[in-house]
């Protein structure tokens, strides 16, 4: 008997009291269990992504517009092994951020491309973690500095670098600029295809013209907002050069 | 200056007996028996006056209608019996009968003329009796004070009510035909008497009048250019401009239980748009409010803390108080309380018990020491892997421990960022027999602890959390409040009325 006794027997829940409210019996709390209950992230956040220097970052956008900035699961640092993390980004230490009151007064104002933190990998590479959105810095996850390895182990969201609060009026534009989950998956697919394409072409020693075409746009995946910006920058540079030539 | 000389002069100016006593600086009960007071003060009571006053000032009997005499030049007849009668009739004709308050308080707004006339008489007495009359302390007991001493007790008695500062407030606005003219003159006088302070639009308040208009600051000669000294008697009496009633603030307390996981505490608005059709506050006020007041929207709902929209509140329920201003009723029968409880039950979402009127001072109980109170919860939690003996053992914590909790992200957009220490008094987890992923955890915490975040840890922002204690992910799917340790309001079983 002792061998077959359930070791958890002492811990089973019994719905004891039969309370009645508004003339209805109160149902046991266990009735509310849902095997497919969404996770905390799924319940309250929308996943968005931001690409910088071929590395993807995740923005968890809460229904109240608070944003958590994280590494996307595809971020190369996760494969390379995280070595160190610092919020001292050179000119300023983000971990010195202090906010006061409801309005989070005193929080650093960040732009999407402002560096939030510096991450180095075991392969010796340094990643400038971008802020991903324009907003006020509310909180940084200082625990990651002491234990950067947590980034590789923690469940989704818990490896957040920082919490940002965008202005209400900027929210629509901010979300528009970020990649949605769908666009992110599309991005992963194309970048993956291109990677394999690279491999195949090198293997099969394809014609030179094809190689050229690939070289002309290295790492360009024809995706997101980086191309229009690049095009604008190009046009602008040409304009400036033309003016410079004229003035000569 | 002898009392007799003073009274003789006042009589010659058309001043009534009560005001004569005011100028004799009679206090308190001395106004009850005028003749006796006159005698004690060494003043001979004129014969016609004796006759006039034998009925006493507070008797109900209506003497024969005498031909209208002119009214007192200083009080404009506020202390006359006729006026008292008019006042009582006016109050009774108002909604006065709708209020069952045992206590009343009067707030009488008097025409500015009374203050002007007081000043005028002050000048007159100075002229007549010289420097024995001070320039900066009034020669009389102020009318305001005399009204309190004389009129208030009479009105309370006639209406069969007690004086109570927190009772039904009867605001009476009095006017007199001479006021408009006299205030116009005052405006002109003010320009001359206080030229430096002339504003574009002179708004002379009663307070200013009281403070600045004294013989030490305004010359009698200046005053006399605009208004006569001494004040002349008037033919018309004061009249009632308006009577406003403001019922007392009544506090109704009870405990509520909440059965629905889709009901907010108070109306939930997001950018001005309603998110849920009803709320606890509205359901309770709808059933309780109309009995007490016509101004239901002015009722304030307070409770000892609050639960989230999706949290049930079971057990004995959560104490709450309604603050009902301008209430007609100051008590609640058990029968009526039961009917209200049953009306709330019909919502099928909220139930109330122990409904009762409580003293106003006690309503504070609900907010004091909120941080110290213990709250009892039951949480439905889900693991990702089946529970082990180790997990269950780690979640049996009979001793209290402290956690650090950052402001949850779900409220961070509208609350300051803080890390708050909170005490968890005990944790007791049990396992659902047919599902090893499901834990039912009973938790006792300090008020103000965010339970959902305590369970899953919110990305490490609450530490320790149940998740960090067991070293595995754990999420919360449902939460019930099962107890709030506040022994107030007292238990009252209204169903015993049946």
Automatic annotation (TrEMBL), chain A:
Region ranges (Disordered): 189-228
GO terms, biological process: dendrite morphogenesis; regulation of actin filament polymerization; regulation of filopodium assembly
Ranges of biased composition (kind: Basic and acidic residues): 189-220
InterPro entries: Abitram, GCV_H/Fam206, Single_hybrid_motif
GO cellular component: dendrite; filopodium tip; lamellipodium; nucleus
Any one Pfam family match given in the protein's UniProt record, by short name: GCV_H
Entry-linked Gene3D superfamilies: 2.40.50.100
GO molecular function, one term: actin filament binding
Similarity annotation: Belongs to the ABITRAM family.
Name of the protein described by the UniProt record: Protein Abitram
Gene source species: Drosophila madeirensis (Fruit fly)
Automatic annotation (TrEMBL), chain B:
EC number: 5.4.99.25
MF annotations from Gene Ontology: RNA binding; tRNA pseudouridine(55) synthase activity
SUPFAM superfamilies: Pseudouridine synthase
Alphabetized UniProt keyword annotations: Isomerase, tRNA processing
Any Gene Ontology biological process: tRNA pseudouridine synthesis
Superkingdom classification of source: Eukaryota
All copies of domain Pus10 N-terminal eukaryotes, residue ranges: 72-243
Domain Pus10-like C-terminal: 252-485
Pfam families: Pus10_C, Pus10_N_euk
Family that this chain belongs to: Belongs to the pseudouridine synthase Pus10 family.
PANTHER family: TRNA PSEUDOURIDINE SYNTHASE PUS10
Protein name: tRNA pseudouridine(55) synthase
Species of provenance: Drosophila madeirensis (Fruit fly)
